[in-house]
Amino acid sequence: MKTLTNYTFEELEIGSSATFERTLEERDLVLFAAVSGDVNPLHLDPEFASTTQFGERIAHGAWSGSLISAALANVMPGPGTVYLGQNLKFQRPVKLGDRLTVQLEVKEKKERRHQVTFITQVVNQDGKTVVSGEAQVMAPTEKMTLEAPVLPAISIG
To answer: How far is CA 6 from the centre of its chain?
Structure first.
């Protein structure tokens, strides 16, 4: 079973960095549309999407942004992190099969509320930035290692 270990506020230093990877699959498009309610045909309808400037379906921008949330929650700082805010700039489309890497880097720490600001960047398999921005969190103050929850099987149909 996979475990998750956090970084406490005290352990984080300016310049500390971490990464998180994920590949966009068909089920990601469908599940994100179902959960968010965003059923824009640009994401779901191949025929419609072929008539757009992208020529094919692309991921919801917020899906790429959600990977930053996953990186903060699962990797750095990890369990116990409280998300405070985020700004995003979408720079390139994400297409089916794209392998994305979230890059996090500690930019600033504030003792008040144990607040940490991260520089965030999501790059594709070609090393091109698809999303950039910053995120603010309250970092955990207690060290912990937990078993990652096992998610239930979800069928689409």
So the answer is: 17
